[in-house]
Design brief:
The chain is mostly beta strands. It has one domain: outer membrane lipoprotein receptor (LolB), chain A (Clam). It has two helices and eleven strands, in the order H-E-E-E-E-E-E-E-E-E-E-E-H. It has an eleven-stranded antiparallel sheet with strand order 6-5-4-3-2-1-11-10-9-8-7. A hairpin with a 2-residue loop joins strand 7 and strand 8. The longest helix is centred in the N-terminal third of the chain and has 14 residues. It starts with a helix and ends with a helix.
Length: 196
């Protein structure tokens, strides 16, 4: 009887041990599907998320759709130039610009402090989920247990809603330089700011 109880205790404690923590490249090229959950509506879209961590630059560029015109969402972080450009608009792509200093923020660095949530079904697939929260912001990353070092889904929860990013493709390669080019709408904004 004591042997059976000892065996059960070992089995239970072993089954609750978290798996190896994912280590995901901070330099990558990816094709994504995106869901944006905002108050009163859900938008679906697709796009790219590319990052060159050593080069100090990243870009998220999505097209979100609902009834009517599509919405473009761009977040071009050019820390190598001390600039960030953002577009979040329907129709005309009005660009905002701000200056930044320092180094670009790691995308997956939160995993070092994330807690293992377990295997959770998500979109007809079971993923190992890791969760990190700080200051009302929650990040959850799902990975396939067969390929832990490749992100499958990233959920970002914040006061304005939730964003879910599905990685259709994820390559740990340096993106092509052209994805980091400043778009024409943002060049116009920059020229206007420089003339003032």
């Amino acid at each position: 009887m004591k042997l059976l109880i000892a065996f059960l205790c070992i089995t239970v404690s072993t089954s609750q041990t978290p798996p190896e923590r994912p280590v995901i490249s901070e330099t990558f090229s990816s094709m994504t599907d995106i869901e944006s959950h905002e108050p009163g509506r859900v938008l679906f879209g697709e796009g790219i998320w590319d990052m060159d961590y050593q080069g100090n630059k990243a870009v998220e560029n999505y097209t979100l759709r609902e009834e009517g015109p599509s919405r473009r969402v761009l977040n071009l972080q050019r820390y190598d130039m001390g600039e960030v450009y953002e577009i979040n608009a329907y129709g005309h792509n009005q660009c905002s610009h701000r200056e930044v200093t320092g180094h670009i923020v790691s995308v997956f660095g939160f995993l070092e402090q994330a807690e293992y949530m377990g295997i959770i079904p998500f979109r007809n697939h079971d993923f190992e989920f890791w969760k990190y929260s700080a200051g009302g912001f929650i990040l959850e990353l799902g990975v396939d247990e067969e390929d832990r070092n490749r992100p499958a889904v990233l959920r970002r929860h914040h006061a304005g809603g939730d964003t879910v990013i599905y990685f259709r493709e994820f390559n740990s390669t340096t993106p092509t330089a052209s994805v980091f080019e400043i778009p024409p709408d943002c060049r116009e904004t920059l020229n206007t700011v420089q003339q003032l």
